[in-house]
Amino acid sequence: MTYYCGIDLHSKDSWLCVIDEKDRIQQREKVPNHLPIILHALEKFSPKPSVVVESTMNWYWLVDGLQDAGFEVKLAHIFGLHMITGAKVKTDRRDAFSLARLLRLDAVPEAYIYPKTRRPLRDLLRRRNRLVSVRATAYQSMKQILLQQGIHGYSLADLKRFDEAMILTLFDHPALQAGMQMELERIRLYSREILTLERIIQKSVSEEPLFELLQTIPGVGKILGLTIFYEVGDVERFSGPKPFCSYARVVPGVAQSSSVTRRGRGSKQGNPYLKWAFMQAAGISVRYDPDVRKFRQTHMARRRSKARRLISLSIVAHKLAIGAYFVLKDRVPFKMELMFAK
Fold first, then answer.
1. pTM of the model
2. Residue 119 dihedral angles phi and psi, to the nearest 5°
3. I want to staple 96 with a disulfide (CB 3.0 to 4.6 A). Which of 8, 12, 86, 275 is the partner?
């Protein structure tokens, strides 16, 4: 007898459903999110059932615990679960059964189970990126206050040099002074936290050869190199550069039916952090590398649409992603003559 288990995971509890090879339900119950209770419910089956867990925000503890206990675990990608998300009648009981049935049919749309040992640093890097975004919002708030008072001509570089004395010089009203002072203190707090996170993360990869090789890619420095290094995980999970670039969101999806083809479908599928990293690297490399800049200008000249600047930059990002794949796979430096031939 072979058993298959589907777990519909929620924040406080989960629905667990175990079926056999003929879809007969052997056990279905609601259990609290406590690992010993879930293991006790599954270990009474022999042989051990294979398990599928939906990829929710809190899957780490459950997948790690099941794997440590010797269970074969698959992580189901939410985008592929149309049988569940698109069902007319959708309940937690049915979802758990549907997951188990997909597992029996070997039709689970699998998500990547990122290595447990590297997961904390990857999440810390994501937190760093969020702090940078929030800090940018604080700078924008300062600029908005200046513009509301008719004060022009302050660039981002000027705002970074702001201090209490400049605030007192520019504003007479205590409320305006307090608003600018709070934004300034918030920016300083974010900057300290960002610097602390960067030190922790960079220390962990200071002797990693792949991290050094990634920095040979045009436009990729330490932060972008860290992002690519930690977001990719095991590059061997990609069969080639095409699925890698699709995962990195640097190529548009296609919807084709008969003679009608539309590009751009599924643009949100993939890794947004890799998309950000390669687009940032493309912008930097176009600015400072003449070969990359010439490559982009060639593609801009072929188009007349208003989006030609963004499209040409996306093509550069695509080329950089292809190069990054071979850097990680072959463990060699980036070869400019292969990607941006003169």
1. 0.87
2. -65, -40
3. 8
